[in-house]
């Protein structure tokens, strides 16, 4: 299937968030990536439920909600009610990961798991068939605009092999430092979904930048 583009609204102008979402609606965007940070699991605070509800009212693309928070299981149903169609939790924040994945699926959302740069993909071998999306962090989570970590390419290849060997339909999402230079390499390694924040929203023409990412071949 064609790769998907999921611009991260963390890099948008919060004072004109509705305009940013309208722009994404009119672009080649596939998913709208929403980073939720609690100031504890990562050293930053971002969106909460009121902002998510505001995005939901305007968005015409699926909301890909990435929970960089402690105890995400306490809030799954609320994020689903707020419009999340994909809910991604961090492996590092979930001592009972299988249970949390089932909780996400039970409320009607697709279940994602994010891995920090230091976490091996092998840790997901026992649950990969229960996961819809694995989000590989290609920067350390918490802030936008960071430098891409090259070891991500190897992790994608390892994860792709695992997915194929286990017969999983899981998609591989890359989050952090994605641009037109490394995107073809990410796709050729096996990535399915590219998250781009600063690269999109800091560009002179975000709609064209999204189109350029979408039309990449490898």
From TrEMBL:
Pathway stated in the Swiss-Prot or TrEMBL entry: Carbohydrate degradation
Annotated catalytic residues: 35 (proton acceptor), 175 (proton donor)
Full protein name: Ribulose-phosphate 3-epimerase
Transmembrane stretches, start-end: none
GO MF annotation terms: D-ribulose-phosphate 3-epimerase activity
Cited function: Catalyzes the reversible epimerization of D-ribulose 5-phosphate to D-xylulose 5-phosphate.
NCBIfam families in UniProt: PRK05581.1-4, rpe
Keyword Membrane: no
Record organism: Rufibacter sediminis
Catalytic activity, reaction form: D-ribulose 5-phosphate = D-xylulose 5-phosphate
């Amino acid at each position: 299937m064609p790769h998907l583009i999921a611009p991260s609204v963390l890099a948008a102008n919060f004072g004109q968030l509705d305009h940013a979402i309208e722009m994404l609606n009119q672009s080649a965007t596939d998913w709208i990536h929403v980073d939720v940070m609690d100031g504890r699991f990562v050293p930053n605070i971002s969106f909460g439920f009121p902002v998510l509800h505001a995005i939901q009212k305007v968005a015409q693309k699926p909301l890909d909600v990435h929970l960089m928070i402690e105890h995400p299981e306490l809030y799954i149903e609320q994020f689903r009610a707020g419009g999340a169609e994909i809910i991604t939790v961090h492996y590092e924040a979930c001592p009972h990961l299988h249970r949390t994945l089932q909780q996400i699926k039970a409320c009607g959302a697709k279940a994602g798991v994010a891995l920090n740069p230091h976490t091996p993909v092998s840790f997901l071998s026992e649950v990969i068939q229960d996961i819809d999306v694995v989000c590989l962090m290609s920067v350390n989570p918490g802030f936008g605009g960071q430098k891409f970590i090259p070891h991500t390419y190897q992790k994608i290849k390892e994860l792709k092999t695992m997915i194929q060997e286990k017969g999983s339909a899981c998609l591989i999402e890359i989050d952090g430092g994605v641009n037109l230079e490394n995107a073809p390499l990410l796709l050729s390694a096996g990535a399915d979904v590219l998250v781009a924040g600063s690269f999109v929203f800091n560009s002179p023409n975000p709609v064209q930048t999204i189109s350029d990412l979408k039309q990449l071949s490898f």
